[in-house]
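Entry 14. Structure prediction run on the chain below.
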Amino acid sequence: MVTAANKPTKHPLAEYIERLESGGTLLPNTAENVLEVVGILKSYGVVLDAYSKNLIYIAENQFLVFFPFFKYFNGEVSFQKLLRHWSHDRINFEYAEYCLKAMLWHGGGGLDKYLDTKEFQQRAQAVIQAKFKNNPIVMGVNQLFPDFLTEQLRVSAYYSGLGQFWRVMADIFLDLSDRYDRGEIKSIPQVVDHIKAGLVANANKPITYSVKIKDKVYDIIPASVGLTFLADTAVPYVEAVFFRGTPFPGTVSFNAQAYQVPPDQARFQYGALYADPLPIGGAGIPPTLLMQDMRHFLPEYLHEVYRRSLRGEDDLRVQICMTFQKSMFCVTTAAIVGLMPYPADTENPEEQRLNRVYLAKWMDRLQTSQLREVNS
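Output returned:
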């Protein structure tokens, strides 16, 4: 137990620090929250399954393609599918690319470091030579601008890395839904434990990336590099998408004199934990695409909750966003607790102090998030 003398009473979010120290969660444990979180993660899992498959398809089949008109078709191009694509009766894979670009821009983790090494450049040049050896125009461009094609392969590596990360997360969320349906999940702490267990079980899962040109396979990220799921994709994803993100056009001034956009990327706070749900549904807001995708796969029990709300389905995307943020605070809780220096129930005063310092740093970053709103 945490001693009274060690309680973090001065921190603005001291309540949440104490919750985590006592084995609690950032989101209150209520039956309604459990239903909402599991239901939205079921829908999210279905969407992530589609995102993951498409990202991996693009990485393996559309690399170094300058005009990939059919990259969202997963190799299955037909006139009927093209009509559905033009009418937007489809999964919005553009949101997956938004997350990918946020990760690429913010960097972090072993994947980001590896893509700046000489080993990657050598492997990239081998792929470029094999793909364009009979194309003097492209090879000439490569001589004039030696980083151009290499940068395209860096982006392709992120397509593959994010696709592999989402493959794991989709399975975790869909398994959570199955366990809920069987009556095994009944509380928010159980939700968090399930997610944490999934992250731990896959922590050392290798992240690799290879492409095939004619009959030869080229390793762009070989297993020998040692990239893993948790350290090199999960943590950078949380940092880039949950916390930092990018400013949404139409909601934030890009006038430098207005100081609306921080000059330092590390101070960006436009991620999923900070976004105001009310603009969701407006043009140019990337999360709108995700909410639109998830609305197609809502379990009936969650859809019924939205129908009974004050505005019914008139603000469905906003309601989905609010629930989605609740679920992301559960994922964040799993990440925070999983990375805690010492067990939450330690009775060693020094270990308690170090845990508290660790938790306080997380809470410093969450002060301007939607944490209080999801708890209200």
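The longest strand covers residues 216-221.
Filed with the rest of this week's runs.
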